[in-house]
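Rotation project, supervised by the postdoc (A.L.). Task for the rotation student: set up a whole-complex structure prediction and record inputs and outputs verbatim in this book. Inputs entered:
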Amino acid sequence: MELLSGSQAVATAVKLANVDVVTAYPITPQTSIIEELAKMCTSGELDATYINVESEHSAMAGIIGAAVAGARTFTATASQGLALMHEMLHWAANGRLPIVMAVVNRALGPGWNIWTDQTDTLSQRDTGWIQLYCTNAQEVLDSVLMAYPLAERCNLPVMVVLDAYLLSHTYEPVDVPSQSVVDEYLTTTYERPFGIDFENPYSVFQLTMPTEYAVLRRRQQKDFEQAYLHYVGEAISFRHSFGRYWPELSGCGYTDSYKAKNVLITTGTMSSTAKSLLTDYKRDVQLVNLKLLRPFPAKSLREAIRGAERAIVVDRNLSPGLGGIWAQEVRAALSGLPVHTYSYIAGIGGTDVTEEDLDKIIYDALNNEPQYYPVFVEDI
Amino acid sequence: MSLISKGHIACQGCAALSTANLILNELGPRTVAVIPACCLSVCNGPYPSAAFKIPVVNCAFETAAITAAGIRAGLDRKKEEANVVVLAGDGGTYDIGLGALSGAAERNDNILYVCYDNEAYMNTGIQRSSATPYGAHTMTTPKEGYKREHKKDIIGILKAHDVPYIATATITKPGDFKKKVRKAKDMKGFRFILAFTPCPTGWKFDPKYSIKMARLAVNSGLFPLREIVWGEETVKKIKTEDSKAVFKEYIKLQGRFKHLSDEEVNNFYRAYKNFDWKF
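Outputs recorded:
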């Protein structure tokens, strides 16, 4: 076990994955990731090309170029930086490039706010990236390691998402696997579908007429449906290699034989808090932690929640005019099941979400009808 | 053998395509072309066909320089020897791509960046760019609302970055152009060539005058042929009978300047004569 921050866990995993090209543009609170990687590249601990770019937009464009040329790539960002990258997120995804990026969830301005809030990554929902959310530093390290075979098998980019400060800057004991075990895990031979070929040259990402374009988008959807199965498989194969298991859904109090009437649904570090609260909890509530935003684990969620009366979703994010983004995803996934979805907003802009807050939310849901609009924890 | 095949979909008289053809033939088949949104990205033709017989990577509008730098990094990791050349229009260079261009120039990324300058957003249907000259009509500076600002000095901007190689060239002087491409090819680091590419469609002149138009621009002093190696400049003097007369002929042949009065043409002439790059 080593004592690592979430940021160090990211950098350590990138090193273990033997990444070829890293692009870096600083933004609080992602800086500790790229600084750590700069140190590793300088010392030779990591043999990678490290490019200090002039914007996040270029950070993504640069690794798009490197990935087309066949390199294993990495970058990291947060908040405004991710928003600036938006165009290139589509480019990486529609270009079917197996890029891996860590995103530290941070609120978007104004007002300037450097604390955690998931609106940055959730508003990239439709860009065509696989998104993996993490609850602790160990899961961060493991998720980055899993991200590479997942990305390369599916030819889809993967975002590994971690909460600002609560994860990025909090030190936890982390089991760092040895290089030989990681090398063995990552040995899958990966055939790139396209690249740069001087013998048989062709153009990539060129003008594409409607019929061909529609074919490519349809294939992307089909591959995302496969990506869901790939993730399930990858989690099992990871457990086989490392003994740790990060399924698409995980919970507390959830067993096959017992299902509670009420399900609390959370993500990120909030799930760690919820897990602590629900261990030996006084009420009939179990936890579901969602690890995937895309592909959304709708099938697993419907199975996990069958028989429950209430799905209580707590969102640390906001789609103004509608409410919690995870709650909307859950509502859509549970459509047709006799379950009421409750939407609560807590922890916006990095405000603390305590066990007391979650307890208050559960009490409120158990004693009220569901609202169409979300309820802010401050209003309970 | 040309590295751009027949069947491309460029306009008649397109100087940008001839420019790309000249450059690629000098660089040879072990070349990756990086093309952002611009006329050439369309000229290459729609998927799954392609007129360019080398690997081409199309990229987003403002990302040509960094995409090329990324490709270079990826190829270097695989120890693949190749030229990485950007073929970008003036919009993707002077305007939206300037940030990435500056970044790559400052890092001295090992790429050859060619801007083919047709002095407006031609691919989107002739809108003003910061490379559009004073006096020009475009769809966003129509007729009497013609552009009042002068062309941005992109060479001055690049020069300030202290890069290994900067040159200007046109297909009207192919010998000079080829020599510059070869010189750039043999150097390492960030190399920049500004190619002047008359556009019959956007400038509203007869396509048969594309080469002539470039010659008039050079001979009038409007587009001097320059070469700057590590900040050291050599300007090739062009002997002209009467640069003002040549300038006037250049202006008169183009529909985009037809609304200008004689006085405005004289103002235009006087103004550019006072620029830094006058000779």
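Student's summary: Chain A has a mean pLDDT of 96.
Supervisor addendum: DSSP finds twelve helices and 15 strands in chain A.
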